[in-house]
Amino acid sequence: MNKTTFYIESLGCKVNQYESDGIAAQLEAHGFSRAGKGSPADICIVNTCAVTSRAGMQSRQETRKLIREHPNATVIVTGCHAQTDPEQFKKISGVDLIVCHQDKPLIPAYLTRESPDKNLFKFRKPEYGKSACFVGFGESDRPVSGKMTRAYLKIQDGCNQFCTYCIIPYARGASVSMPFDQVVAHVASLNRQGFKEVILTGIHTGLYGLDLKPETSLTQLVQTLDENKPVDQIRISSIEPNEITDALINMARPGHILCDHFHIPLQAGDNDVLSRMKRPYSVEQFSDVIHSIHDTLPHAGIGLDVIMGFPGETEKAFENTYKLVAALPISYLHVFPFSPRQGTPAWHFTPKVASDTAKKRAALMRGLGEQKRSEFIKSNQGRVLKGLIQNQRDRRTGLLKAVTTNYLTILIENNGETYDNPNSLKGKIVNIKYEQCSSNCLVGSIVP
Description:
Elements: E1 5-10, H1 14-29, E2 33-34, E3 43-48, H2 53-69, E4 74-79, H3 80-84, H4 86-90, E5 97-98, H5 107-112, E6 151-154, E7 156-157, H6 168-172, E8 176-177, H7 180-192, E9 197-201, H8 218-228, E10 233-236, H9 246-250, E11 261-267, H10 271-277, H11 283-296, E12 301-308, H12 315-327, E13 332-337, H13 355-380, E14 384-389, E15 401-404, E16 409-412, E17 429-438, E18 441-447
Helix pairs in contact: 12-13
Keywords: 4Fe-4S, Iron, Iron-sulfur, Metal-binding, S-adenosyl-L-methionine, Transferase
Cofactor: [4Fe-4S] cluster
Domain Radical SAM core: 145-375
């Protein structure tokens, strides 16, 4: 194939980004050049997202935009939205190929052939319960590093939970896990490449290991990493509340490998709404988990996902969610108005919550999130935190910036003092004293 420059647009979650980086790495290994956004490209790949209606719409918009900007390019569409609703992309003139999750890893093989054969791909729906739609992990002999300061490692794919609002299990199929020894080896390999932090990610990361033989768990994996220390620190991208064990919390204490940062989906703080969502915990159980983390790790970063306007969410149910979040010792919120997804049970649920009402509730919840963030920042002022210096400086100030283990971004300003070759600090873990918040930026200095 005579087309050698490619561009990948990855929408949605970190798993999509990881998979896009994997495709890019294979293409680059075959001599292809990765184009930046807005640069000419012979091949455009869109890795779509379906988590909300808006994400699906953005995926289609991005596809049309790339076709307009690259009229002579080969355009390939893949990802969750392409998987669950391929007909939408068949309607878009200029799309050359729609690839299902299972065949996503075959895209480089297709593009690197002298005479590409579209018969390489057979679009398939996931056969839930038999195998995951996306390819298993056995073929992955080396980790995907990407271009970030912190490396992501996808250790799990698929989901068995089938929350009533979520389309993702229909897109990706049942849960599958990377073999245990392969995870450990990949983490060590990333460390040898210079990464000090590895983020373990997946579609439902807490299900890790339950499909393996012998069966294992995320907690056991982190314990092994903690004992062997193949890298300085690891972080879990997101984890369900009922999958956070006491042992996992303890491995985020000082001297251990796990960062003191937990991102946990709450979705609703009302038991009736949680039941309609088919979430596997109660408000009381969720509260106990958050307090267990806070009691052991008083300065841990704790983020929550919350959905506003789910069908049947009364004013009282919203108040229950608001009061619960207000009472919990958390550090930030991700708030989403409910997005009905055709093909899920919640698509048919009534009574519907008016769009304006859902947006108003979301705005109130975001305001609470800002309040929580401010309180968390204030509670860390004057503390010495462990932080990873990022490869990219802060665009506005030009200062070095660090991400702390408890998920604060702090700009480094050594009070007028100079240190030799500050660029040599990039990618290093240092101790930082957070001192002040200036112009909505957190500022601190490196200390011994």
